[in-house]
Design brief:
This protein is an alpha/beta fold. The protein has 2 domains: about 140 residues, P-loop containing nucleotide triphosphate hydrolases (Rossmann fold, 3-Layer(aba) Sandwich); about 55 residues, no CATH class. It is built from 5 helices and 13 strands. Helix 2 runs parallel beside helix 3 and helix 3 packs parallel to helix 4. About 30% of the residues are buried. The protein binds zinc ion (ZN).
């Protein structure tokens, strides 16, 4: 039986590198890989690029109102699919996660979802919550904080006067490299930065 996988990790935990490696592993065995990426606006794009420069293109960028089960059903009329990889899976709606589980159960196709656990303010993404609830296999991809501890928090950085400043409030979604930059840090370092930058804000 095929399984629904959730591979989660903070920013810079190597999710994209793992996606690209997995993609080529399947391809070398002559298998058909379908790549999907949820996107709620035009900024998302279909490009999947690792920090080392390797890149892939998503076959589908799915909007929030798309029924993913139906989409795959249509795709399977003319195509064979052996495995589905979902990048940025935190942006799936909970309903779409359920639809992907239907793809796994009805078509016996494994679905590998890669995504973040929580946003830059340590609130879980609804799509990730659903993946934690119903996935068959859950794996953590580890990132390392500057201090050497495991990084589990995503730190959002806004460029202000050419300097990157940590921010601790704002919208849940702010696209990496476009609206903001991110770093991954451990919880103690995140709290320390929040205290420091909170204090600076009060002094202004
Ligand atoms: Zn740290």
């Amino acid at each position: 039986m095929a399984k629904l996988y959730f591979k989660y990790g903070a920013m810079k935990s190597g999710k994209t590198t793992d996606i690209i490696k997995t993609y080529y592993n399947y391809k070398e065995k002559g298998m058909n890989v379908l790549i999907m990426k949820p996107g709620d606006d035009k900024k998302a794009g279909s490009n999947i690029q690792s920090r080392s420069g390797a890149e892939l293109n998503a076959d589908y960028v799915v909007l929030l109102n798309i029924d993913v089960y139906q989409l795959i059903t249509y795709h399977l009329i003319d195509n064979n699919v052996d495995v589905i990889i979902v990048d940025e899976a935190q942006f799936l709606t909970p309903k779409q996660v359920d639809e992907l589980s239907e793809v796994v159960d009805q078509f016996d196709i494994p679905v590998l979802c890669y995504g973040l656990r929580a946003d830059a303010f340590s609130n879980m993404f609804p799509g990730s919550q659903r993946l934690f609830e119903i996935s068959d296999k859950i794996e953590e991809l580890k990132a390392i904080c500057k201090c050497g501890k495991k990084a589990t928090f995503n730190l959002r950085l806004n460029k202000i006067d050419g300097e990157l400043i940590p921010v601790f409030e704002g919208e849940q979604v702010s696209i990496d490299g476009i609206d903001a930059e991110y770093d991954s840090v451990c919880r103690p370092c995140y709290k320390k930065l929040r205290r420091e930058y909170g204090k600076k804000k009060q002094e202004e």
